[in-house]
Amino acid sequence: MATTDRKFTATEESTSKHPHDWGRAMSVAICRLTDMAREAGDPVHDEALIGEDLHLFVEDTHDGVSITMSWTPRERAALPPATPTSEDGPEHGASGERFDPTGGSTAGLGQ
Fold first, then answer.
1. Where is composition skewed (Basic and acidic residues) in this entry (predicted)?
2. Domain boundaries of the chain, sorted by first residue
3. Sign of CA dihedral 99, 103, 106, 109
């Protein structure tokens, strides 16, 4: 990856001071990191963050907290192509096994 000399920082607000409520703000900030890298000219996708060190800073605000995520990409080889979707091929779980949405149940989906 060509962004080793760059640091990307994204900040989002949460209207709660309770950590269990910060998920949306954290996920939006994290997604913005790869968006910024792409805007800087690097062909990265969200999987580029796997195995990377992300830094979190939480600042108190009047109505909640400000969540700041930052990322300085490490030098790495080119990323593999994005994982195919169900239109491109079979769906697989994280272990590489075929995904069974019923969990092995014979009752059908959602039962």
1. 89-100
2. 8-71
3. negative
